[in-house]
Amino acid sequence: MRTKEQYLSSLSDGREVYYRGKKVGDISEHPVLRIAASHASKLFGLDRSVQYENVGEVSRYFVVPRSSSDLISRHRLVYDSTMACSGIFNISQAIGSDAIFALHLVSRETDLKHHKEYSQRVKNYHESVAKNDLTLAVAQTDVKGDRKKRPHEQSDPDMYVHVTSIEKDGIVVNGAKAHTTQAAVSDEIIVIPTRAMVEKDADFAVAFAVPASTKGLKMIVRPIEELEGNSSAIISKQDYELETLTIFDNVFVPWERVFQCREYEMAGSLAVTFATFHRFTAVSYRSATANLYLGAALSMAKQNGILESAHVRDRLAEMVMYKELMRMSAISAANLPLMKDGVAIPNPLYTNIGKLYSNKNFSNILDGLVDISGGIISTLPSLEDQNEPFEKKYISKYLAGTGSGKERINSIRIAKELGASSQTGYMLTLMLHAEGSIEASKMALLKDADLVEAEKLVQAILEASAN
Amino acid sequence: MRTKEQYLSSLSDGREVYYRGKKVGDISEHPVLRIAASHASKLFGLDRSVQYENVGEVSRYFVVPRSSSDLISRHRLVYDSTMACSGIFNISQAIGSDAIFALHLVSRETDLKHHKEYSQRVKNYHESVAKNDLTLAVAQTDVKGDRKKRPHEQSDPDMYVHVTSIEKDGIVVNGAKAHTTQAAVSDEIIVIPTRAMVEKDADFAVAFAVPASTKGLKMIVRPIEELEGNSSAIISKQDYELETLTIFDNVFVPWERVFQCREYEMAGSLAVTFATFHRFTAVSYRSATANLYLGAALSMAKQNGILESAHVRDRLAEMVMYKELMRMSAISAANLPLMKDGVAIPNPLYTNIGKLYSNKNFSNILDGLVDISGGIISTLPSLEDQNEPFEKKYISKYLAGTGSGKERINSIRIAKELGASSQTGYMLTLMLHAEGSIEASKMALLKDADLVEAEKLVQAILEASAN
Amino acid sequence: MRTKEQYLSSLSDGREVYYRGKKVGDISEHPVLRIAASHASKLFGLDRSVQYENVGEVSRYFVVPRSSSDLISRHRLVYDSTMACSGIFNISQAIGSDAIFALHLVSRETDLKHHKEYSQRVKNYHESVAKNDLTLAVAQTDVKGDRKKRPHEQSDPDMYVHVTSIEKDGIVVNGAKAHTTQAAVSDEIIVIPTRAMVEKDADFAVAFAVPASTKGLKMIVRPIEELEGNSSAIISKQDYELETLTIFDNVFVPWERVFQCREYEMAGSLAVTFATFHRFTAVSYRSATANLYLGAALSMAKQNGILESAHVRDRLAEMVMYKELMRMSAISAANLPLMKDGVAIPNPLYTNIGKLYSNKNFSNILDGLVDISGGIISTLPSLEDQNEPFEKKYISKYLAGTGSGKERINSIRIAKELGASSQTGYMLTLMLHAEGSIEASKMALLKDADLVEAEKLVQAILEASAN
Amino acid sequence: MRTKEQYLSSLSDGREVYYRGKKVGDISEHPVLRIAASHASKLFGLDRSVQYENVGEVSRYFVVPRSSSDLISRHRLVYDSTMACSGIFNISQAIGSDAIFALHLVSRETDLKHHKEYSQRVKNYHESVAKNDLTLAVAQTDVKGDRKKRPHEQSDPDMYVHVTSIEKDGIVVNGAKAHTTQAAVSDEIIVIPTRAMVEKDADFAVAFAVPASTKGLKMIVRPIEELEGNSSAIISKQDYELETLTIFDNVFVPWERVFQCREYEMAGSLAVTFATFHRFTAVSYRSATANLYLGAALSMAKQNGILESAHVRDRLAEMVMYKELMRMSAISAANLPLMKDGVAIPNPLYTNIGKLYSNKNFSNILDGLVDISGGIISTLPSLEDQNEPFEKKYISKYLAGTGSGKERINSIRIAKELGASSQTGYMLTLMLHAEGSIEASKMALLKDADLVEAEKLVQAILEASAN
């Protein structure tokens, strides 16, 4: 098991990372990006080690869930680590293990069908990352071009990452993946397809893993405006995650790291199996993240002296419901898993219901926080004003609520960061789009639902009536 | 364990039941009320027997839940028996056992505090009803008068059932309880307080059980308009539950059947503990009932040829979500029970979240069914028209959809019963008010929620920031 | 201008009306249907006469709107007449005039294009019905069969009313229209197409008018369960409207009453122009009808003693908003009309927004009424119980609220009729489907919206930024 | 009528403005604040002059509305000027005239009651600002301290602006107002009470106007993070409005500028009358602002190739509805004004309904924009990356949609600014809190609604039934 320091020093490996138009040298020294690295590094300070099968001591993230109880543990692991990182998800080993679990299942099926040896490669890769306690990003969402068109129909074939050449020792891939979380501060990047494919899409059915420092791999980090653009930021100064536009400019991948290559009919299965594991992770971290909004709202309600107002209580009840519905989703999904090849897959229906509720109701949670907090979260004087001696007297005085101005300003800063800063828009986008769109979840939900039970009930009633 | 016939014959016990202004003689012969009795009797046809402790073979409803697994079994029992009764809840042994579980817990606490012997009485009563395989109604909601006032503040003290005299062998009670489900077809009526009480309310803090045929007990049944008022009714011809205005006109209750008498500070606890068990029952039957709406909507969508329309799929997804959210609530509540005196109480927070979701979203489910079904559910010609030879040719012909007119008419009849008949309003009221109001659930939810976790998170972030 | 009596006696004209499997003789004597006739007849008691152009004294319904002010008058006319009929729409001259206005506009266009003389026929028909002060039903919605298919694609061509033969003196039509409001108690039935047509649908592009007593016209009335199925009904005993399945069994229509015949490319225009006028009528009556729900909710809130509760006030505010949004829709649509050939067409965008709001929010209004009223609206003892001397004492006593039991029972009866009776489902269906579906309104809304203004704004910002 | 240049040069008047801890010298030269000034100055470039009574040529904002038609003109004026400023409200003469109209009405009433001469002062002030074509900020919302307490109950009396001394030539006031829009770039600050007052609050019942450069007046501007914190900002680089914490540190106000002084019973009336005029302004600018979201969503839907998807069309329909509902509110409020002393007050009910709809539905509009736009609005590479030659090739290439990368990036930048930047949170707060809270609007709505009409209807039905 690595230490924080080992992890942080491993980032100086020549990886090609760009921020605001400049190539970043040492990420862990960069004034902005080092916070994303520091956030990731917190994982190494948490209690997460376990003796695992014949591999030895590994991070609990890498344990393949084989029972309801394993899934509940995994839910708690994600929840607790999110709580330990200021309520901000720590994706470092969570998403990668989600992908590895899916790769195990799908590679086994592919091997049976196509007489391949993918599953052994996945097994080896799994053991290697577990032993070396690596952090992993997963690049799934392609840049996609025209959303109406399939991969092979795009005018530019690079709109989806694809195999451009098959060589003796491996393959060459080209293309770009959008918004890969924490790619720039991960040890490895796992790539999987973003959707189901048809035969003509075969070149786009590709899955593999590469180290972050691989030649031809370029990562352009989004501007971290929740930090740079909010002079009062508190949370983002401690914890945030970055995303990159992840470019594969003719990247070579050796065979032992290739997990799918042109088996187009397995692409959808891999995308969906990963999504199920990852949405289970999502409801787990989202229930923890919800505490941020609930805590900030409680704090503002108290500072404003409105905790007992009926409309405030309604808003708080919605926040509690949001947070706990995510947990209900995780608990139910863990308790009724799909068992496949000895792996416990979180119940897809219950996972998707939590996911969908989260997508559809987050803006309402935001709305509640802003409603309770008041206009001041948008008009709070800057931190520079708050420190300037002349103004301080006015500001502390005039921003007092039921408690002192200083206390209320702290509450306002948190509420502003969540409800009226660049982070607001970032989280709204995240809550709507991360781990799959609303439409994708709806489709999955109807596919996984037991509609027959309902149809049979109506049929039985009609038959009983006819007698 | 009794048979259907034993149960049905037991109803002819001289009980005082009124329907539409007339005293009902033999309920199981009454053209309308016999369906409620027949519905109740279906319980006796189900597989529900179990060997229980030292009592012998009893109905599984009477098993005190002592673990998560017991609660899951109870959830399935309620779900399955609802499905076996056309999706309509069968309350016969469910609500009574919910009350008995609560009485066990609260009587023990009362005995400790007040040196009473209530818990032994509850135990005896429990064994007796279990051995005799009785059906039980629970009369909780008082008629209440002016809702702004406490029991003792009402201008007429009879607005809440209360003790009017304490005698050597027992007590005398007077008052009325509103909408007691299946009272007229139950063997026993259990009475518990509807709310928390203060010292001046002591006379209103009363819990007891009486046979349905007790002298002075009068039950006025609501008009069963879902049956009498819908010539096309199918479901209600097979299954419905009645409610009564249940009047206690100076009813004498012997001591061995008195479970609370003037211990006002325990009234709220009894009301809430019962509510928790009963809301767990509620989310269990509601998930089953939801199949009716989903099944009817699927059937109409197919008959109308609109199953693939995006707005139809959205509506169906909401119905699936509704149904499964109830189950998520039950599963989560079962998995994280409160343990008290060896009894597993369903997690109140998760129970209430399911309950609240059901309250707030049922009208949306209705809306979806009506939207998918079309105006025809309100304008369907009467059953008499459908049988009349001259008209039949027109009606079957003109009501055809993707399938035959006959098939579509069957679907319409079900959809009409659920979405455009007297049953519609009945179910909407049930879904909003049964097992406690929205406001009551919200209050419970905020009380049971772990708000401290959220507040601590925000506090920790602020502290880390100060360093 | 006719009197009530003249109107009522005119119904005995041999029309072929069926109710519950029996042919109805004199409608105004039928125990159930006479209420629909009596409701219609109330129109003749209202102040609605006006001197109109060269026609003389006519009902204000027949005045073609030529200005904003005319439209506002029409809105008030519909609103006031609804209020005069217990909050229940009186369609008798409203829908027919909506159709005539649309026929004027579309027939003029058709004549220009096809060198026909439809517009003169429409003019003559308009004058004749105005002079004779007739009541008119409009049969638009075909029975439709498989909704995925166009008229000509249906396996049974009769799924849409269509021309089966063109003869010297007129045409013969066959088919059926669904849910024609008040057809059985109207003097005339106007038929128009339900949708846009393509060339192969030409036979289905047909518009005409026939007297209700026309040979081959058969009307099957829906069962009036809001009256027959609710022993406590108050509103429906005074006012309701019936719908019929309206069958045209090879009906002959003379040329002077044919307003469209195979001009398929005008069918959509006629359907939409009528819909616009009729949706303006709809928002007008719906704002009046909303008073029923608001009034009932206020009454129950007072009787229950909860008028000042925050959640009750929220519900009432939603009801006020619902009612007034309908009026805002009418006022705005009247103030910004489309002018065409001197006719003021209500602004389609503002009309549709009101319509859509009404569709989407009615179930929420229902929900509010039920929430405020309490479970008692479903469990109210029957009227027979309330009259029976023995029980009366209990019922009046125990149903008392802040006021007497008698007063509260009256409030409950109204609230039950609206919120927990057959009328509930009927109104929900009406509010969702009458005057066009949600999807139809959405489509219209996007078509009529000025999207270009928004696009230009964004374009202008981008251009200013580039400079 | 002043020119842009005259206005801008007038800002160098020694006013005490602070930004990020520093006193700002010349605002129109400040790199950030000059944009707020430039935004305000756009007003002077618009066609807004009119000959007004005996005052001469003035800005149309200063015309007292005396008819429906005047109100419609005012609605258009606000709408058009918002459209001319990138969809961002230009408050410069709008809010001040709203306050002046309210001051006219309330001062007349106060004079009658208290034999004062406020109305002449208001008249003189009105003429003076109109003649000099001044820009005006209105400081209404006090900092408030503990929201549960009235002004006189606060532990620190300065929590509401109040009179500390009454002198021969005027009064001295102390306290602070929160979030005063555009105060730092306005010529004048008008102060009015924020709520109704009781007798003990008399010192807090104070209204007056002062020039922005008045001694003791200090304005601390919020950090403009939508500009400084979003490297891709386009709109905010052209148009935004600032808010200040506006401190009155023992400011002297001469009598001729005092419009209310201790007439506590008129404070509520002034607050509400202003709110009504200003909410009419609000729905007018909000309908224009809505074009931004609609335009951005349309643009993203096209670039992503999803314009025809059902869920996208649903979202667009909601945006159209939002925009047009604001206009319906304005049109209806203008058409049914309250007339008082010859002044046309926008109908308060219709104004509040628009306002409330806007408050409650804005987060849904945001949600729609984010849903349509996709995750890319949060992960768009920075502007610096887009300019850097090496990366440009990748970025333009990989961000292409149905059109070129360059076009789509422009759309993304706008969508990001609105949906995933600091502006997102700012606008959400604005839409929820500006011009009064949701609870305030609900209270106003129920107060202004005609509840009697609904109650009478129900009463009439019951009476008719009794006969």
Mind explaining what this structure looks like?
The structure is a homotetramer of 467-residue chains. Chain A has 467 residues and is α+β, with helices and mostly antiparallel strands. In chain A, 51% of the residues lie in helices and 15% in strands. Chain A is built from 17 helices and 14 strands. The first copy, chain A, has helices spanning 4-10, 33-41, 68-84, 94-114, 118-132, 225-228, 235-238, 267-304, 310-335, 348-373, 376-379, 383-387, 389-398, 405-419, 422-433, 438-448, 451-466; strands at residues 16-19, 22-23, 49-52, 56-59, 136-139, 162-166, 170-181, 188-191, 206-211, 217-221, 243-254, 258-261, 338-340, 343-345. In chain A, the strands form four sheets. Chain A has a six-stranded mixed beta sheet with strand order 2-1-10-11-7-6, with no helix packed on it. In chain A, a hairpin with a 3-residue loop joins strand 6 and strand 7. The longest helix of chain A is centred in the middle third of the chain and has 38 residues, at 267-304. Chains in contact: A-B, A-C, A-D, B-C, B-D, C-D. At the B-C interface, strand 7, strand 10, strand 11, helix 10 and helix 11 of B face strand 7, strand 10, strand 11, helix 10 and helix 11 of C.
Spell out the blueprint of helices and strands.
The structure is a homotetramer of 467-residue chains.
Chain A: H1 4-10, E1 16-19, E2 22-23, H2 33-41, E3 49-52, E4 56-59, H3 68-84, H4 94-114, H5 118-132, E5 136-139, E6 162-166, E7 170-181, E8 188-191, E9 206-211, E10 217-221, H6 225-228, H7 235-238, E11 243-254, E12 258-261, H8 267-304, H9 310-335, E13 338-340, E14 343-345, H10 348-373, H11 376-379, H12 383-387, H13 389-398, H14 405-419, H15 422-433, H16 438-448, H17 451-466
Parallel strand pairs in A: 1-10, 5-8
Antiparallel strand pairs in A: 1-2, 3-4, 6-7, 7-11, 8-9, 9-12, 10-11, 13-14
Helix pairs in contact in A: 3-8, 3-9, 4-5, 4-8, 8-9, 8-10, 8-14, 9-10, 10-14, 10-15, 10-16
